[in-house]
Amino acid sequence: MTAPHDRHERFPALRRRGFLAAGAAGAGALALAGCSGSGATQDTGDKADGAPRRGGRLRAAFAGGGAAETLDPHLGNLFADAARGKALFDKLADYAADLSAEPRLAETWEPNAALDRWKVTLRQADFHDGKPVTAADVLYSYRRIADPDKAYRARASLEPVDLTASRATGERTVEFVLKRPTAEFPNVMAAFGTYIVQDGATSFDRDPVGSGPFEFVSFTPGRSTVLRRNDAYWDGAPYLDELEFVVANEESARINALLGGQVEYAHELTPATGRAHEKAGTIGIVRLRNSAMQAFAMKTDRPPFDDPLVREAFFHIADRAELVAGALSGAGEQGNDLFGKGYEYYADELPQREQDLDRARRLLKRAGAEGLKVTLDTSAVAAGFTEAAGIFRDQAARAGVAVEVRMGSKDSYWKDILDSGTLCCYRSGAMPIESHISQRLLTGSTTNATKWQDKKFDALYQQAQSTKDKAGRAALYGRMQRQLHAEGGFLVWGFGDWILGTAPNLRGVAREAPANTLDWARFDKVWLA
Amino acid sequence: MNGLRSWIARRLVLGALQTAAVVLLVFALTEALPGDAAVAFAGDQPDPERIAAVREAMGLDRPAHERLAEWVRGLLHGDFGTSLTSGRPVSGFLADGFGPTLLLAGLTVLLLVPLGVGLGVLAARHEGRFTDRLISSATLGVYAVPEFALGVLLVSVFALRLGWLPPTAVGYGDGLLAHPAALVLPVLVLLARPVCSLARLVRAGMIEALAAPYTAQARRYGLSGTRVRYGHALPNALAPATQQLARTIDWLLCGVIVVEALYVIPGLGTVLMNAVADRDIPVVQGLAVVFGLATVVLNLGADLVTHRLAPRSEVAA
């Protein structure tokens, strides 16, 4: 039963290390995205940046996993893992800037009428050792990820696939048999960590062989990974000769290394750094919009939030502009209590909700909840959390609600807030809206932090998954989002920018690629001028 | 001499017991932290089934005392165990982190002793005069600046504004020695406070020793001022400084996290911080053993040196 729901776990776990890197907020480091995407975004970049030039070594600084790091693409958890993974390996599909799935190693996919069998044809592509990418490699990779004895992150994403019944129907064709109709199966193929490795590969730290744009040169866990151009890359050889990932956990170290010319790309900067250097102009600042949802999660199965009136009152307590200005230092946009602003299927026709304290007070009175006292769980686990909690406490006080802020351990925060408490700070990296729903908002979802359990809502989701026609699915997602907007458990107040720093001579960096999408941290289309 | 030998043996046994106690305490405290390696690993996707699978794969479903006993058995055979998070041997983590830490500590101590002692003696010789006041107030002032603030300041001035030195050692890894310029700023930060405390201790000890009856006696015998100062007063002044130096070396060997993070030098402090965040208990315990032993050996060494410089029993009242 839990089945449909745990798919698409593509969120990055952002392990602790993330914490030094203040920006952890984004979370999802996963790299997914749009391949053919090179299309739109990349082209714009090219025009502004002049003609691409070949050659040079790009050094990119990321917060990393320390001495425990691995190049096993199925074990990746961190932003750094995801960036290295996409440089060395490919997935069947990846996410475009609007989080729709685009073909990568898969050239085409075609479902049957019932949407429970998908025929996937692979493009002609080679691994770094010259062997072609085949259906056998794909099935081996998926079976490795789904191994019940291993806890690979992407295992839950592949849950809809019946890997025993799925089979190769040719050298480059796979027939995936699914356990139930899954209209968004391409999202599964684009899910975080679903990289294609060679049939039989088990060890990756010495000499990983992928089909990605860069080939392995050397790897020192927690310090440096050196790769070189794959001249035979199916999507066009990268411009760079070499790519080196270096690990710098402290944000100040990343920006200093960039300013001092020691690296050309610094991942994950704070809003203060971004503002300071945007004006100075000595380095480039890239803001990837809509990368990190920021919200308060209300548990809808227990008092006081089991009363929809109280939830609605809280929707009207929040001054979203003040939260964005204070907790995100202005580096972001206001939310409208829905996940996925700017993504495919997002219900942007709904009016922006504004603070209305009188209405909030009236709603609380109607709910018999005057003088309400609530505990708000927060933690320093993500950028802006503690600030957001403090700001919201003051906003709630103006509506007569006493909010007590409780600080939790950042190492176990996500597990702690999953089942206990009533109100907590929450954030999410980019993923398709469908994945957000299946992971968090169905009765059987494994990370349902708002305890939103609604049979009719579940039925709408299943109906969408059985609807082949995209417009039909869009209408169903629209209905679901309208319900969430009216009475859901997520008070989504903002979407944070993901901030990168680039050296003046680094060109071609995509600007429209939320962290998690294909063009984020993508180095095969950039060049050094 | 026999007395000294048995004293050393007793100290070593006591040290081993202290280290064992530290390791036990560290194990208990890490266990007591909220969450375990599986929860840390699962991060923001705390799917209970996945946490259970990770826990089983890491062997965390076994009782704590069993895991501790197994680790102790391995340690007796020189095996530090295996990292929970990566499955790699803990000894590798320790070896990788030890190189940069040792290099930084070695360079720092090499500069620290002559600088600290020199400044202290200089100040003591000019007690109360301008040089003394300058050294005393400068050392007090620098001592008051935290490492992090000083580190950021030095980077802004010497690396970013003047461009004389690289701001970090990012990407150099084991090749740190090949980039000596990258070591200048971190060593300066590490030196700053220890030099101050050492200089002040030496100054105070020197002034006290120079005023002591035995130096007056030495002078009455007609010994030269230089010989009195450096042959008699200085060794006595160095005794307390030696203890301070041992503490400083211990601090350096345990990895100064702030400096490592700021300058991207992957030493033992970084290993410790990551391991605690991951709840990677075998790595934390391995570090506790190393740090515990370092502390015991250094303090023992300092006591021996002190004993040699100023044998207490022989000091005249």
Helix-strand layout with pairing:
The complex is a heterodimer of chains A (529) and B (317).
Chain A: H1 40-49, E1 57-62, H2 79-88, E2 93-95, E3 101-103, E4 106-111, E5 117-122, H3 135-146, E6 161-170, E7 173-178, H4 185-189, E8 214-220, E9 224-229, E10 242-247, H5 251-259, E11 265-269, H6 271-280, E12 284-298, H7 308-317, H8 320-327, E13 332-334, H9 357-366, E14 373-378, H10 385-397, E15 402-407, H11 413-419, E16 423-429, H12 433-440, H13 455-465, H14 470-487, E17 490-502, E18 506-507, E19 527-528
Helix pairs in contact in A: 7-9, 8-10, 13-14
Chain B: H1 2-32, H2 37-42, H3 48-58, H4 64-76, H5 90-125, H6 130-143, H7 147-161, H8 180-210, H9 213-220, H10 225-253, H11 257-263, H12 268-278, H13 281-309
Helix pairs in contact in B: 1-13, 5-6, 5-8, 5-10, 5-12, 5-13, 6-8, 7-8, 7-11, 8-10, 9-10, 10-13, 11-12, 12-13
Report on this model:
The complex is a heterodimer of chains A (529) and B (317). Chain A is α+β, with helices and mostly antiparallel strands and 529 residues long. Chain A contains 14 helices and 19 strands. In chain A, helix 8 runs antiparallel to helix 10 and helix 13 packs antiparallel against helix 14 (470-487). With 317 residues, chain B is mainly alpha-helical. Chain B folds into two domains: 2-76; 90-309, MetI-like fold. Chain B has helices at 2-32, 37-42, 48-58, 64-76, 90-125, 130-143, 147-161, 180-210, 213-220, 225-253, 257-263, 268-278, 281-309. In chain B, helix 5 (90-125) crosses helix 8, helix 5 (90-125) crosses helix 12 and helix 10 (225-253) packs antiparallel against helix 13.
